[in-house]
Model the fold of this input.
Amino acid sequence: MNIQKAEQSILNAIYAAIAWLLLDLGLLFQEQGVQAISLLFSRPELAVGVIITVVCIAGLMYKSRLAAMVLLLLFLLPLVLRMVQGVYPSTVMLVFFLLLLYFFLSGVLGAFRYH
Done:
């Protein structure tokens, strides 16, 4: 992987992280409606997750390896924990998860290759 491919992989990971964040927030607003904002303030773990994701997206803009790793783990750990508990996503969601996982993993590889 050369520098141009590494930069493109990082950029793809940024796009995937933004899509993932917007999808999660959109689903939260669809489920909760106007109370979604109060839910973010009443449950600090949700707000912290959003803040960490936004900070990692900003870190990826500077080609941060740590930000790429944190985003990958933030995405992968809840998925693995749900599957261990026996909650399997639908086929469409699984394909979407695998697509995002590919972009996050290539972002990690691109960030390490860039430096």
Q: What stands out?
A: The two ends are 12 Å apart (CA to CA). The mean pLDDT is 88. Residues 3-114 form one domain.
